[in-house]
Design goal:
single chain, alpha+beta, Amino acid/polyamine transporter I, Thiol Ester Dehydrase, Chain A, 3 domains, six-stranded antiparallel β-sheet, two-stranded antiparallel ribbon, 21 helices, about 55% helix, elongated
């Protein structure tokens, strides 16, 4: 590719990714609640809804672009996400499940149920099944590298549907734009009771959306500006919301006002307003109605296929990195396939639609429960310090409390409580990060247990005047203090000995290659301790070294005491990582490193999942 064609290629890439970003963000909340908010507060409410939604998308792209630029590596953002997201994995998973559930529910509740097809008990599950299968099919067919092309084709159908609707309406399309909204006479506090939670939720919402993170990572890999792609996506997304909102205003001013139905606590719900109006006149305007259903279906489909691909990526990456031994017992396809979570989401959505719930009951969680996690994730992206854990119990409690407060305010028509519930998680996160000794909330609970104490190291230290093997023996008995085959100190396996002439080079220092040999010998002794029944003659698997790393810190000489320590650092389905340290007799660190081992069949050398015998042997030392 010539240098002149690169800018054009990147521009096309930005537009394609921008289109995919916009379509993936047109999920149930943005697609249908925009109708509700527009009918309630008119064009003013629609513009506020659009501005904060688009601004949240753009800021996510801009900030992730700055994070990606911290390194010139095309994998810099992927590496950042891998480390940064670890303490938020459960929040990511719950957020994605709720988003998928909400999207399926919205299409059933506001696009299918208004049609009034009977028998209800038959068509309802069939409709849910069709939605699920469409999302799974497109998710299986297109991966993250190809999705921008499939979404580009789907956008052509979407644009055609919009063109049909606009050509049918003509100038009548703008008639309802002057409608001030049903709440025009309400006070400012009522308006703020909706705007504040919505604004907060939209501004920081993309930070827990796996779909957006996967897109940003892939965009960076393709050497395309994340900021440009998300700017294009925000603009297109805003245009789609504007079209749908004004269409809702037209429907309301064209006789659909009587189609608004009353729900819980006396609230009027209008998310299905357009569908009800068009379905009642389908005989006279079938093309218009068909175009609108096409518009809704494409918006929902491009969210579900994105969710499927993102969920598969998330599940695979976490299973591959997880240390939990249960992952070696369950088939990998069962752990990494999004089909089961999709079916779970479909069942919840189906049940919610059957009992007549509304979209607002789902969106409460995005305006309250997840706000704290989103704010904390942003803060942790720019703060130095340990990020291995977050105070999960505290975060869950504050999020749940915010949900309860919002629900009370919503059901009691007290907007002040709705505002408080959205601000409370933000305030708590600020306190959590800035309070004295804030680092205690972000340190792992096992650090004190895993840290080697001074008493544990003390037996390895020897008097400075003599460093011989006699130092490892009590003066009274001459019996070694520890087994010559090694011993355990907590989770560390320790082997101590004395370096001799055969370990040194021509200048008297220990030859560099001996350190690796010592680690290898200690590993063999470790295996002998935990796998005493292992026999090469009848074993169904072999243990092979995949990689070995060692950092040299100090040198030692002949007759210096050496202590090699080794432990299981981590393991997943296929590989085990062993960590090692080498100390001298005075406890000084000589070097450290790690190695990765794998397991192959003793008959055909095919790579195996970690054998159950290994899992059982290592579990006490992992």
């Amino acid at each position: 590719m010539t240098s002149a064609s690169r800018p054009i290629s990147r521009l096309i890439g930005s537009l394609l990714w921008g289109n995919s970003i916009a379509l993936s963000w047109m999920w149930g909340l943005g697609l249908f609640f925009s109708v509700q908010f527009t009918i309630d507060f008119g064009l003013r409410g629609l513009l506020v809804f659009i501005i904060f939604n688009c601004l949240g998308l753009f800021l996510f792209g801009f900030i992730t672009h700055q994070i990606a630029k911290r390194s010139a590596d095309s994998e810099s953002l992927a590496k950042f996400f891998q480390q940064w997201s670890r303490p938020f994995r459960l929040a990511f998973f719950l957020y994605q499940l709720l988003a998928i559930t909400l999207t399926i529910f919205a299409l059933i509740r506001y696009a299918w149920q208004p049609l009034g097809l009977e028998p209800h008990i038959l068509y309802l599950p069939l409709t849910a099944l069709v939605i699920l299968m469409a999302g799974i099919l497109f998710g299986e067919e297109f991966n993250i590298r190809r999705i921008k092309y499939s979404h580009g084709v789907l956008f052509l159908f979407l644009a055609t549907a919009i063109g049909i609707m606009l050509s049918h309406l003509g100038s009548r399309y703008l008639v309802g734009a002057s409608f001030p909204g049903r709440f025009v006479n309400h006070d400012l506090l009522t308006y703020a009771g909706y705007v504040v939670p919505i604004s907060i939720g939209f501004l920081i919402g993309p930070w827990l959306d796996l779909q957006q993170w996967q897109r940003a990572i892939q965009i960076h890999r393709e050497n395309i500006s994340i900021t440009s792609a998300y700017a294009a996506g925000a603009i297109l997304f805003g245009a789609l919301l504007l079209f749908h909102g004004i269409l809702a205003l037209w429907a309301f001013s064209s006789g659909a006002s009587q189609l608004v139905h009353e729900g819980i606590a006396g609230y009027a719900y209008s998310e299905d307003l357009i569908t009800r109006l068009l379905s009642s006149n389908v005989t006279y305007q079938p093309w218009f109605f068909g175009a609108y259903l096409t518009f809704l279906s494409i918006c929902i489909l491009t969210t579900l296929d994105s969710g499927y691909i993102a969920l598969r990526w998330f599940l695979k990456s976490n299973v591959n990195r997880s240390n939990h031994p249960i992952f070696s017992l369950i088939p990998s396809w069962l752990l990494t396939s999004p089909i089961i979570p999709f079916i779970f989401c479909g069942l919840i959505a189906l049940t919610a639609a059957a009992v007549g719930l509304e979209l607002e009951y789902f969106m409460i969680f995005f305006a309250t429960f997840f706000v704290g996690y989103e704010a904390l994730s942003i803060g942790r992206a720019f703060m130095n310090g340990p990020v291995s854990v977050i105070p999960q119990v505290k975060m869950f409690c504050i999020g749940s409390l915010a949900v309860v407060i919002f629900s009370f305010g919503y059901l009691s028509h007290l907007p002040l409580f709705q505002i408080l519930s959205a601000l409370m998680p933000l305030g708590y996160v600020i306190w959590l990060m800035l309070k004295p000794m804030a680092g205690e909330d972000f340190a792992t609970g096992s650090e004190e247990l895993d840290q080697v104490s001074a008493q544990e190291i003390a037996p390895l230290r020897a008097p400075t005047e003599s460093r011989t093997v006699l130092e490892l023996q009590p003066a009274s008995t001459g019996v070694p203090a520890h087994s010559i085959a090694g011993h355990f100190e907590g989770k560390w396996f320790v082997h101590s000995f004395v370096a001799t002439y055969g370990d040194t080079n021509s200048v008297g220092n220990v030859y560099f290659g001996m350190y690796a040999m010592w680690v290898g010998k200690t590993r063999e002794l470790f295996f002998n301790q935990v796998l005493p029944k292992f026999n090469l003659k009848d074993t169904p698997f072999y243990i092979l070294t995949r990689s070995f790393e060692h950092k040299f810190v100090r040198e030692i000489s002949e007759f210096d005491t050496v202590c090699v320590r080794i432990r299981v650092a981590s393991y997943n389905r296929k590989f085990v990582t062993l960590e090692h340290e080498i100390h001298d007799g005075e406890g000084n660190l000589l070097g450290k490193g790690n190695q990765s081992i794998l397991f192959v069949s003793s008959t055909n050398y095919k790579i195996l999942d970690i054998p159950q015998a290994i899992v059982s042997a290592f579990i006490s030392y992992a």
